[in-house]
Amino acid sequence: MITSEISETSRSEKTLGPAALVGALVTATCTIAFFLLFWNHFAGLRSGSGEYGGGVSFLQGLRPYRDYFTAATPLNILKSALVLSVFGHDAIVARAFAVFERLVMAELVFFWLLRMFRVEHAALAAIVTIVVSAGDQADPLASYNHDAILLAMISGFLAHFVLEPVRGSKWAIPLFATLSGLAAGLSFSTKQTIGLGVTAAVPVVVCGCLATLRGPRKAALFLAFFAVGWCVSAGILLVWLASLGILEPFLNMVFVKGPSAKAAHSSDFFWRFLQVLRLYAWAALAGFIALLLSWSALRKSGQVDGERKGSYPRALWLLLWVGLSLACGAVLSYSGHGWTTRSILKPVIYFSFFGVSALPLYYAFAWLTNRLSYRQAQFCLFASVSFACAFMVSLSFPAFEAMLVPGTGLLVAAMMDASVPWKKTMVAVGCCLLIFAETVGKLNLPFFFSDMGEPAVRLAHSRSVLPELRGFVLPESTVRITDGVVEIVRKAAGPKDKIFTYPELALLYILSGHGCPTSTCSHNIDVVNDTYAKSEAELLVKSRPAVLIYYRQPEENLQAEERIWRSGRRSGNRYIIDAVEALAKEYNLVATYPAPPYDLKVKVFVRPDLKSDRNLAGLDRGELAAVKRDTSLIPAIRPGN
């Protein structure tokens, strides 16, 4: 059996090259086309600039865990700083590099699936996975979640090579195991949850499969070299933190204070999953039914070694149909239809999560009964890495579009591989409809976090005068806020003064060049626990920042967040809200900016001790009078009051 598998794989390798190149180009073209429709048409004003802010802070000499609180491991910050130092400090650099990373993710999904499926099946599966996974309305593109998932996928992809029937050199297992461990360690250094998930999934699955297919010695060899690679990459991180004297606060922030903001007890994660499952019961049911209908194809594809061939016409037809889906979605959005995909994608999330949960269990049974083939081992590894990523991402939110990477690709490719022709057509049509729907939704609401969004792409016609926002074409309402607030801050605050935004509008810290007076600039409810939020409120009152930028969260939104993250209990964030509002009563209201699409009122307050040059450097008497009259300091912007 093994001999036939080797010869079949060798024959298919010879015919794969040109078609694989076409498939890779089609995947890249469609992926880039999707992201270019909206990538620079939103600012990520509400909690969408974390990666950019982390990189800028690092280049300014600020270190995480020492100078400010952060709940994740720091590789994303270091990567951002490196990218900004090489390509420039503008926000568009971070955004462009994020699009490049999504392209790399698409190609990685494609080439991993190509080890098991036909070219056109792998290409369609990769495209729909990356496009639909961007459906999270709070996806800023530059995201540590996707960095960690990308590195987890690299770890799984490298491990895949030791589960192929073709025998390599005696150094194949040590080489791929070490590289896989390095990637898993880097994933841990980017986000601890996803990194730990893939660190467990890859060696467990690969060692178990190798022990059955090639003997326990090969399994032990893989485990040893995987551990070496992991310890090298993660060890470098820990040594660097120790050299800065911040290893202890790092461990406390990442493994104690950070997780406690999302759950006071480990059981809270389970109850939150059930709570969201109840909210999306219809979606979970639809996803489960879809899995039942597709299970036969998924099981069959894993049992029979598929044809790893491809043809130019099919790949080019794929380009045509996906391109048409993107074009139709863009036309519908620009015609004024306000459709979003918030609900449409939930069944896909549950289908993918249930699928990548069920497949490892199915193949574990095959392993226990000694009926595991090389192809089944490969399926098991892909599904297990997908499950590890999806499960760990679900700790952030139980129905999160990032959970689709890379598992959706395996399910789509397997259904295409083992279905009869008319069912293949249905799967392909379904994928194109998802791409169409996601295009419409993303262009209508390119970014939305908690209770604040940014208008549709068709309304983005303005450019900011701020050099940090070069390259962006934004809605006028967004430019009013960024340019207006920054101008006020620069006139009202001295060089060493601090400002404060609540809820988090951290981009304004970067654009104005003024930091926050508290130990973190992000006070989202799932970032700071209640005790920490109370101490931050006390620190805010004592510090009395020069400028406050504040909007009142709708009470229903605040209560909804408390139901999700605090089981309905009053959150510590209310202490921060009380502190901001108490200070605002003593400050002068300078300007009020409407924030579409939900007409929130972003208010800017300046501290009233106007005699202090340190607090109001650069303002002449006429401008001080303008402040007292509660009018805008920027005639060109003229925000409403």
Architecture blueprint of SSEs:
Blueprint: H1 2-36, H2 50-59, H3 75-87, H4 91-114, H5 119-133, H6 144-160, H7 172-190, H8 192-213, H9 216-243, H10 247-262, H11 267-279, H12 281-303, H13 312-334, H14 346-368, H15 374-394, H16 407-418, H17 421-444, E1 447-449, E2 452-454, E3 460-462, E4 474-475, H18 476-492, E5 499-502, H19 507-512, H20 530-543, E6 547-550, H21 555-565, H22 573-586, E7 588-595, E8 600-606, H23 621-628
Parallel strand pairs: 5-6
Antiparallel strand pairs: 1-2, 3-4, 6-8, 7-8
List keywords for this structure.
disordered C terminus, globular, two-stranded antiparallel ribbon, mainly alpha, four-stranded mixed beta sheet, 23 helices, 641 residues, 2 domains, disordered N terminus
Gist?
The protein has helices at residues 2-36, 50-59, 75-87, 91-114, 119-133, 144-160, 172-190, 192-213, 216-243, 247-262, 267-279, 281-303, 312-334, 346-368, 374-394, 407-418, 421-444, 476-492, 507-512, 530-543, 555-565, 573-586, 621-628, and strands spanning 447-449, 452-454, 460-462, 474-475, 499-502, 547-550, 588-595, 600-606. By secondary structure, it is mostly helical. A 4-stranded mixed sheet has the order 5-6-8-7, sandwiched between helices. A two-stranded antiparallel ribbon has the order 1-2.
